[in-house]
Amino acid sequence: MTGAARLAPGRPAVARAWEASDPYAAALRSGRGPLFLRRTDGWLLPLDVERWCARADAVDLEVLDRCEGAVLDVGCGPGRLVAELAARGRTVLGIDVSEAAVDRTVRTGGHSLRRSVFEPLPGEGRWDTVLLMDGNVGIGGDPRALLARVAALLAPGGLLIAETAPVEVDERAHVQVVDVTDGRAASGAPFPWARIGTRALLRRAGAAGWLGAGQWTSGERRFVALRSSGRPASSSAEPPNSTAVISSQRARKPSADNAATDR
């Protein structure tokens, strides 16, 4: 199996691994770490749980200003971005394989489904923007498969905004979620994950037919905007007139209403 792109009976392997990760659920419920992704060779990647559980910060808001129309946040975690977009009156849905993440998103005022990106989702082929933030471009361990899946979720010419690694890297590994301070082994089997920098993502996306729509650095975080092929598009992901986009296209957009109860 390549990453989590090939569905097995039930939930994909990456979903089952995250669901079984007690340290991850505990961290989301408490709103604090420390928490890490640990490779099988022992290398640790810190996870920024406190930032994820806080309100959207200035860097997040800059990203959200670039979103167009109806937004799907893949791997929404505790839902800070979903909640912010919902507060703006935007059509937005978060998905995450963690029940704790979905519950926290709903409590903060957002709509969320407990679902893997590789499972059937509401509004396939009709989302205007898909977000892959906080390293979620690594979901499934195969960026090429994830890009193909996102392209199927987006409307023609739709926008993908992905947060890339802060260093130029293109690697795949098997990892577990661990809290190294509690002396316990991680729950669940290792699952595939990827880290990919801006240049590598642009190279892979270009080979798959995506159009570059911008790249930027804000603080210490890096981002890429890509547009799916299918209709003429602007050359950059400038912040859109959000109200006009939603009001003129709402009739054909996927609805996030009551999504939190669709599990």
UniProtKB/TrEMBL annotation:
EC numbers, comma separated: 2.1.1.222, 2.1.1.64
Gene Ontology annotations of biological process type: methylation
Location of region: Disordered: 227-263
Biased composition, class Polar residues, residue ranges: 231-249
Organism: Streptomyces salinarius
Keyword terms: Methyltransferase, S-adenosyl-L-methionine, Transferase
One Pfam family here: Methyltransf_23
Gene3D superfamilies named among the record's database cross-references: Vaccinia Virus protein VP39
Enzyme class: transferase
Molecular function per GO: 2-polyprenyl-6-hydroxyphenol methylase activity; 3-demethylubiquinol 3-O-methyltransferase activity
Taxonomic classification: Bacteria, Bacillati, Actinomycetota, Actinomycetes, Kitasatosporales
Name this polypeptide is given: Class I SAM-dependent methyltransferase
InterPro entries (UniProt xref): SAM-dependent_MTases_sf (IPR029063)
